[in-house]
Amino acid sequence: MMSKRYPIPAAETRAEIEVKNSRFVATAVPAFTVEQAREFIARIKAEFSDATHNVPAFLVGFGNSVTAHCNDDGEPSGTAGRPILAVLQGSGLGDIAVVVTRYYGGTKLGTGGLVRAYGDATKAVLDILPRAEKVPTHTVMLALPYNLLERVRLLVGEWNGRILEEEFAADITMTMQFTVARFPGFQDALRELSHGSLAAEIVETNEDTIMPLDAFADDEGT
């Protein structure tokens, strides 16, 4: 049974906003376990050890099977962690951890101001966050003659595959990765290109490969 697909962060991302001279630095990462989330939070607290607050929140999993956590790291109760978590829960993302680091600028923001600032800092990082999904993929191998190399490379791109390795000997051995949904189409196109003489061989299937969202933009519903 295929697990439900949902967007996750593709890479660690950081954004900064300023509110009444207080700096709010939001850092977001993918986190697939509570342990990974806690390790990330500890790393950010060490990186910004001179900050006034490092406020964490995370969602591990998605939908009904999600572990959610936040705390205020010394800010007034409910003014920091909860607004961050609310933005994450409304984002449609899963497997994400965020720490918003605050450097106090000398002007108190008040309860409402803090809620807005921590929420806005989180929105700022989500606005620029590259997204990926965990999807089932096939890793495949193909031996091909040199005269077809460029055309097969183009074909891999057309079917949103990734070339992992190319070995050049008497023939070329190419190792590639495709989403499970896309691979049959590539295989058919490869047979057509080679008049039936070439077929890629599946060497591994991974149920949870992180692929950028644009790698399977046309796979929806498959």
Count of discrete alpha- or pi-helical segments spanning 4 or more residues: 5
- Which H/E pattern describes the elements? EEEHEEHEHEHEEHE
**CATH topology value of the largest domain:** Ribosomal Protein S5, domain 2
CATH architecture title of the largest domain: 2-Layer Sandwich
Poorly predicted sequence stretches spanning 5 or more consecutive residues: 217-222
Globally, the shape reads elongated
User: Tell me about the biggest sheet?
Assistant: 5 strands, antiparallel
SSE-based structural type: alpha+beta
The CATH top-level class label of the largest domain: Alpha Beta
How far apart the termini lie comes to: 14 Å
Please report which band the strand proportion falls in: under 5%, 5-15%, 15-25%, 25-35%, 35-45% or over 45%. 35-45%
Mean pLDDT: 92
Oligomer: single chain
The overall number of domains is 2
Instruction: Please state the CA-atom Rg, rounded to the nearest Å.
Output: 22 Å
**How many β-strand stretches?**
10
Query: What is the CATH superfamily classification of the largest domain?
Result: Impact, N-terminal domain
Percent of residues in helical segments? 25-40%
